[in-house]
Amino acid sequence: MGLDAESFADGTPLVFLFSSVNRTRMLSVFVDERSRDLSVSEIAEQAGIARSTVYDHLDDFVEIGIVENTRKTGVSERYQLNMENDIAELLYKLDGVTLQALLEHDQ
């Protein structure tokens, strides 16, 4: 099987969700900052990625309901983790249990 051949995992939901480091970083920012809404600039800064990269992925997260558009301040839209969404809630729980496992591993 060549490198350019599609693997079984390519079409799976988890690969869609975590298909790049940038998407994973964005999701991490939303989970860590779940109690407040963020502008695209704030998301980019905290994730360590370009604003254009945030725009590349943000619509996917909004479309499946993980992230919601909360309000507009001036010309900036603000976004927040949608804790009423099952995926968002599970991401939050996954973050917590992963942290716990990492802390236990380090002891």
TrEMBL record:
- What InterPro entries is this protein classified in? ArsR-like_HTH, HTH_ArsR_DNA-bd_dom, Tscrpt_reg_IclR_N, WH-like_DNA-bd_sf, WH_DNA-bd_sf
Q: Which domain of life is it from?
A: Archaea
What molecular functions are annotated in GO for this chain?
Answer: DNA binding; DNA-binding transcription factor activity
Q: Which PROSITE patterns match?
A: HTH_ICLR
User: Which Pfam families does UniProt cross-reference here?
Assistant: HTH_IclR (PF09339)
Q: Which residues does the UniProt record annotate as the domain HTH iclR-type?
A: 18-83
What name has this protein been given in UniProt? ArsR family transcriptional regulator
